[in-house]
Amino acid sequence: MTLKMIIFDMDGLLVDSEALYKEGWLKVAAAHEIPLTAADLAGWSGQSLQVTTEKLIALMGSAQIVDELRKEREIFIQQQLAAGRVHLKPYAREVLTYAREKGLITALATSTFQERGAAFLTGLGIANCFDFVTYGDQVKQMKPAPEIYLTSLAKAGIAAAEALVAEDSLTGATAATKAGLAVVLVPDQSVGSHYTPEEKAGLNILMEGTSLKVLLDYLRSSDWTDSEKTADK
């Protein structure tokens, strides 16, 4: 098959934000004397807004409290972005630049809603690195449903067999697999993500690494200037 497109997740893959998100929850919970711990938040990376909201309601007691604290956490996140505490993950800029130099279509498919997602892309200087962007509030069903990846393919007019997905979470990898896409899995090292063979069973994983260098090296290993650009080399 001919590789024409790479679709990237954002949080935990391109942007080192997952630890900051957890810090924000702990900070606002402590301010309201709500006994939320890091152990409570363990394993939440990559999960949908609906799933995390349900878990927070169970911990905090009401949807109203969760909504109020979510707004305060959003302010905290924006403050950290303005203060320069939000950074790109290793090799993120390099792999985006290289893919575009070689004529590949690049897309973003993130569960993050548009307001924060757009702020991250602009603040980190990568807003112009994507041909297509789809945010979590622009689809009806978020990951692990395949809709966001199917939407990305439709926007580009590309078949699943002509694209790859780069993801850090099992939730995202599941969504990509359901959409018929091969996955480059890069577990988020900043939050200690590691997946067992049992957890990865059934996922369409092409390769796995501890940073986006695995994808960059893969792209550099082939002659992307000819017609034999394949993702199954």
Structural class estimated from helices and strands: alpha/beta
Beta-strand percent range: 5-15%
Largest sheet: 6 strands, parallel
Strand neighbour order, sheet with most strands = 5-4-1-6-7-8
Number of strands: 8
| SS element count, helices | 10
What is the string of helix and strand elements? EEHHHHEHEHEHEHEHEH
**Segments where pLDDT lies below 50 for 5+ residues?**
224-233
Backbone CA Rg: 18 Å
Shape: globular
Multimeric state:
single chain
State the distance separating the first and last CA atoms. Answer: 10 Å
The helix content, as a percent range, equals 40-55%
Q: What number is the mean pLDDT?
A: 89
Describe the structure.
The strands form two sheets. This protein has a six-stranded parallel sheet, with helices on both faces. Strands 2-3 form a two-stranded antiparallel ribbon. The chain is of the alpha/beta class. The protein is built from ten helices and eight strands. The protein has helices at about 20-30, 40, 50-60, 65-80, 90-100, 115-125, 145-155, 170-180, 195-200, 215-220, and strands at about 5-10, 15, 85-90, 105-110, 130-135, 165, 180-185, 205-210. Helix 9 (about 195-200) links the parallel strand 7 (about 180-185) and strand 8. It is globular. The N and C termini lie close together (about 10 Å). Helix 1 (about 20-30) packs across helix 4. The model is unreliable at about 225-233 (pLDDT under 50).
